[in-house]
Amino acid sequence: MDNQKVDKYDLSAYCKVLAANFEWASKLNSMARQASADRAWAAISRFYSNCKKKIALKKGFPNFKKRGHSVEYKTTGWKLSEDRKYLTLTDGFEIGRLKLVGTCDLHFYQIKDIKRVRLVKRADGYYAQFCIAVDREIKLEPSKKVIGLDVGLSHFYTDSNGDKAENPRFLRKSEKALKRLQKRVSKKFTKGKPQSSNYKKARNKLALKHLKVSRQRKDFAVKLARCVIQSNDVVVYEDLQVRNMIKNHKLAKSISDASWYQFRCWLEYFGKVYGKITIAVPPHWTSQNCSNCGETVVKTLSTRTHECPHCGTVLDRDENAALNILAKGLSTVGHTGTHAWGENDLCLDLATDSDKLTR
């Protein structure tokens, strides 16, 4: 880490040294060890990249993760049956044959097209993820519509047409159940002693509830983003710095619960899939300027109606902001601040270095 001359290939070579020193590492498939080195290098390179940007934010110093919940195989170490119903792991751990549930989509691809296989542990069981590099492009008839989106907390977003999407508030609605489950975990915890099976069961129930909230957020973001992209040719939204916004501790939980960034990522993903234009614009003065005459009308957060004393325009505050966002986007050439391919794979929620959309 301190020697910047060490690169990705040096880390991969070091995996062989670790395999010679640790018996459990020698049992793991060589490409699985290299995949772990790839993850470590991704964290290190991201840290150095953030340092070069000279921005006064946390740089993301890599931290050691004692417990991993996934293992990744590349082109060896696994075998998929011809009927796509069984996955066999062939490394030294002798896990054997695993029965797969819900593998219908695998029949659309050749086994040779599968580039990576991941085993992931969730609170409700184990999952196998198959990474396939494909160019996913779906052509739609042009809708000849453009739209600006202003995200918020009272409503998830308000668009430039005045339509609103309700904020589901999944975490807020689950707080009572989460509090009850957390109390059960705390009561069963014994300090300084091995934990009982009842403690482990209670902890797993709490993890299941958190997993459900996470999946609800993702499902909402995916469906809403797909609907917005399919209905419009150009979608404009604010380039919000959520990391800075959650420093306001009175709004931090509500902002995190809304999950605006996840919605933005899916907007940009579906924008590339359906060939639509997505534009992120700076958020400065979108709420304060009048969308009709451009004059500044200062408002506090409690002021929900935009009333311009210069031109007499009266609009909902969020609709006025959405119109300003749309105007900014239409004056921008090309894509601005879009989510680059390869940084995150939304289908897998894991980092990938592929330059294609995977499915």
Task: Explain what you see.
The structure is a single chain. The protein is α+β, with helices and mostly antiparallel strands and 359 residues long. It has three domains: 1-66, no CATH class; 68-132, no CATH class; 146-166 and 226-330, no CATH class. Helix content is 38%, strand content 17%. It has nine helices and 13 strands. The protein has helices at residues 8-21, 23-27, 30-52, 170-188, 197-231, 242-245, 252-258, 260-273, 317-330; strands at residues 70-73, 78-80, 86-89, 96-99, 114-122, 125-132, 146-151, 155-159, 164-166, 234-238, 277-281, 305-307, 314-316. The chain has a five-stranded mixed sheet. Strands 1-5-6 form a three-stranded antiparallel sheet. A hairpin with a 4-residue loop joins strand 8 and strand 9. Helix 1 packs across helix 3 (30-52), helix 4 (170-188) runs antiparallel to helix 5 and helix 5 crosses helix 8 (260-273). It is globular, with a radius of gyration of 24 Å.
Q: Which terms summarize this structure?
A:
359 residues, alpha+beta, 3-stranded antiparallel sheet, 38% helix, disordered C terminus
**Strands in their spatial order, largest beta sheet:** 9-8-7-10-11
Distance between the termini: 33 Å
Instruction: Give the tally of β-strands.
Output: 13
Shape: globular
Helix content: 25-40%
Short description:
The protein has 359 residues and is α+β, with helices and mostly antiparallel strands.
Protein topology:
Blueprint: H1 8-21, H2 23-27, H3 30-52, E1 70-73, E2 78-80, E3 86-89, E4 96-99, E5 114-122, E6 125-132, E7 146-151, E8 155-159, E9 164-166, H4 170-188, H5 197-231, E10 234-238, H6 242-245, H7 252-258, H8 260-273, E11 277-281, E12 305-307, E13 314-316, H9 317-330
Parallel strand pairs: 7-10, 10-11
Antiparallel strand pairs: 1-5, 2-3, 3-4, 5-6, 7-8, 8-9, 12-13
